Amino acid sequence: MIKIAVMGYGTIGSGVVEVLETNRDSIAKRVGEEVEVKYVLDLRDFPGDPIEKKIVHDYKEIAADEEVKIVVETMGGVEPAFTFVKTMLEAGKSVTTSNKALVAEKGAELIAIAKEKKANFMFEASVGGGIPIIRSINACLTADKIEEITGILNGTTNYMLTKMSNEGSEFDDVLKDAQAKGYAEKDPTADVEGYDACRKIAILTSLVAGQQVDFEKIHTEGITKVSAVDFKYAKKMGKSIKLLATSKKTGDSYSAMVAPHLLAPEHPLYNVNDVFNAVFVHGNVLGDAMFYGSGAGKLPTASAVVADVVDMAKHLGKNIPVEWSTEELALEDYKNTEKQFFVRTSVDEAAVKEVFGDVTFVKADGVAGETGFVTGTMSEADYEEKAAKLGNVLQMIRLA
Amino acid sequence: MIKIAVMGYGTIGSGVVEVLETNRDSIAKRVGEEVEVKYVLDLRDFPGDPIEKKIVHDYKEIAADEEVKIVVETMGGVEPAFTFVKTMLEAGKSVTTSNKALVAEKGAELIAIAKEKKANFMFEASVGGGIPIIRSINACLTADKIEEITGILNGTTNYMLTKMSNEGSEFDDVLKDAQAKGYAEKDPTADVEGYDACRKIAILTSLVAGQQVDFEKIHTEGITKVSAVDFKYAKKMGKSIKLLATSKKTGDSYSAMVAPHLLAPEHPLYNVNDVFNAVFVHGNVLGDAMFYGSGAGKLPTASAVVADVVDMAKHLGKNIPVEWSTEELALEDYKNTEKQFFVRTSVDEAAVKEVFGDVTFVKADGVAGETGFVTGTMSEADYEEKAAKLGNVLQMIRLA
Questions:
Q1: Of the four listed, A11, A71, A306, B221, which is most buried by Cβ atoms within 10 Å?
Q2: For residue B54, what is the DSSP state?
Q3: For B280, which residue in chain A has the nearest alpha carbon?
Q4: In this structure, are residues A263 and A240 in contact, taking their beta carbons and an 8 Å threshold?
Q5: Which CATH superfamily is domain A135-294 in?
Q6: Domain A337-399 fold
């Protein structure tokens, strides 16, 4: 019998307890022995809940109990989660977390402590919910050098963009709907401004590069400026609009970015809709691959947490090496990367041609008084210079 | 330095040697030491090839060399591959294979020998080429009970169906094109009759159920009867036609089948085109997930083989348990499973209604002299009975 503790009895934490109960037999078969929750750490008491007697309020009680070998952290936020997790690892316990803020900021440090203590720090649920993307990078695609990783990593914004596309509605209206359905929070900033996706691509880039990526240095644009008119152009071009978090190898470094993109039907992420997440990976020998699934939600996320518990239970006392050093990776300036840009401007076609040269003009049904066009391939810096020269740019969305 | 041998220097075998060379550094970093090919077993000599001096013709030479810890089998076919692989495992070496025929027929037996010898028998490349589907089932989705696994597992037929859909062409014409392009073999039976996909779904079902599945007992229909007219109906319904290999949990067993299916745009496999493969998985807590990538080809397949080599190199002398017993799984009779059927018949709508009751009629553009309709949900047995009563059935394709 392996005893574990769960820190945080919110949506994911209670999901973890539920999954361990629902699949008790199959999990025991996988691990080789039963897994039992000994403590649940929460500020609240949950009278009447079957978990009631396991509730503790002081994390030190868990840290001090040598019988507890594995700890699940599902509290969210950097503090006090970091202090709690660090204490558990220093006490020789393995820890899994669903907390992307913690992993993006403190991943390298916690991995190093786990290694030193012959324990493990895992975080499958921190990116892509139930999609096993962390394990795919660390343990599956091991023959490859990963040259690109591009994901739809935020279910809230993907739900909103899908709804805007299907119904022709505006950002503010779908946001209200998403909030009413519980998909978006009251303060939706982290989702709609792309901050959530930014932390997730920082984690994936750190793993692929083996070095710490500072998420604050990743150029990040959200979806707040995407409008119903943009979708009219997208439809005309036969493309979808998705918030992509992307990271590409450029020489010795990586270029990372979060921004809305226009995707052609041939793109593996074109058809990823609603709250689903997906991650596209390009390996130097594998070629293109894609992983798709529920990026959030109680049970899918808990499924990923429990898969970590199973892995850690099978490796008690043995550290599984993860390459992610505390040394910071100097990201390539995104302004050097080249791509095509879709632009809407209030100036006429002749003025566009004068500045951007040979472009493809797009006329959307029911849109008047503006000019839409797609540029040739150019660097971000080049685009910015030309856009400033053109002036009157109403919108710019990159092509994936 | 870890010494390995490659048995079979064809497309995949030479790809394995190439991947080990191309990614030598990153692989050494993953493993903790360098991986070197000591022998290549082949009937041929390859004079002038850099591999020339490593060529051996007798597998016993490899088996007798204690320095060789890992053997790659990329010969194909059950014999002599089985004899060779068994000998290597009995000599205490770990073996990885890309050979689905061998795995489908002898998987359980070889896994048992590996376990007894504290070695490993792995076969990531036998299903889905570069897609890490075996490792996902064995090592990633470990918190779940997998309730359904449905794949597009044959790239040749997917290429052909995609071309038929795009160009409105007939089976015979796209087969010739696929043969000319090297996607289909001179004798295309194994692909177009579904036998290849059948072996692959047998392997996946065995892993999910933990018991041996006899692939000969899986109901298998190929794509030879799919016509240009069928695609006209599919277009009218907004669906795609794909050869699906599917396995669903039914009580204590599984129901497995290989057959062409009509897929709605919402289906995660709807948009998987050309030679790509994809596997849809439904877990009881994970919900829906999908894995997509190159299902064949020299380097993607070699990528999967080498990922096995890396995993085995990290676990020398230690068996990683795989649940797949030699006890045969009694599959549920597919005739008991329920679904909807699309049917084309030469009788009129009134006659259809008399036998099938409430159906949805479909009229395809440019098709005359026949009646197309979609039935309500019913068992295969029920459908067969009604179809026999109706008579004059020109085509039947199941809805996914």
A1: A306
A2: G
A3: A292
A4: yes
A5: Dihydrodipicolinate Reductase; domain 2 (3.30.360.10)
A6: Alpha-Beta Plaits (3.30.70)
Q: Which residue of B has its CA nearest to A135?
A: B140
Q: Is the Cβ–Cβ distance between B324 and B108 less than 8 Å? A: yes
Residue B103: both structure tokens together? 């795995």
- Class for domain B139-294, per CATH? alpha beta
Residue A266 has pLDDT above 90, yes or no: no
Domain-by-domain residue ranges, chain A? 2-129+298-323, 135-294, 337-399
pLDDT-derived band of residue A86, with 50, 70 and 90 as boundaries? Answer: very high
At the topology level, CATH places domain B335-399 in: Alpha-Beta Plaits (3.30.70)
- Known catalytic residue at A200: yes
The answer to whether A130 contacts B293, with C-beta atoms less than 8 Å apart, is: no
Q: Are A90 and A117 in contact (CB under 8 A)?
A: yes
- Taking alpha carbons only, the member of B299, B293, B298, B302 closest to residue B273 is B293
Closest CA of chain B from A273, distance in Å: 9
pLDDT tens, residue by residue, B253-301: 999 999 999 999 989 999 999 999 999 999 999 999 999 999 888 999 9
How many cross-chain Cβ pairs, A to B, lie less than 8 Å apart? 157
Token digits of residue A248: 């590409």
Residue B259 has which token pair?
């057959």
Q: Under CATH, which number does the domain A2-129+298-323 receive?
A: 3.40.50.720
Q: Which of A21, A35, A98, A144 to mutate to test the interface with B (most CBs of B within 10 A)?
A: A144
Report d(CA A397, CA B129) in Å as an integer.
35
Q: What's the start-to-end Cα distance of chain A, in Å? A: 49
pLDDT band at residue A296 under the 50/70/90 scheme: confident
Span B120-135, pLDDT tens digits: 999 999 999 999 999 9
Two tokens, residue B349: 């709508």
- In chain A, which ranges are continuous DSSP H helix? 11-22, 24-31, 59-64, 81-90, 100-116, 133-135, 155-167, 171-180, 189-192, 195-209, 228-237, 298-314, 349-356, 380-390
Cα A200 → chain centroid? 3
Searching chain B, which residue's CA lies closest to the CA of residue A27? B143
Chain B contact probe: residue of A25, A140, A147, A267 with most B CBs at under 10 A: A140
Residue type, A314: K
Report the gap between the CA of A306 and the closest CA in chain B (Å): 5
Q: Is the ipTM of this complex over 0.90?
A: yes
Chain B partners of A290 at a C-beta cutoff of 8 Å?
Answer: 290-293
- Cβ pair A317, A176 in contact under 8 A: no
Options A200, A248, A298, A386, the catalytic residue: A200
Same fold across B2-129+298-326 and B335-399: no
The stretch A307-316 carries a mean pLDDT of 97
Architecture (CATH level 2) of domain B2-129+298-326: 3-Layer(aba) Sandwich (3.40)
Partner residue facing A292 (CB), from B144, B289, B306? B289
The active-site residue out of B54, B106, B117, B200 is B200
Instruction: Using pLDDT thresholds of 50, 70 and 90, give the confidence band for residue A316.
Output: very high
**pLDDT (mean) for B76-96:** 98
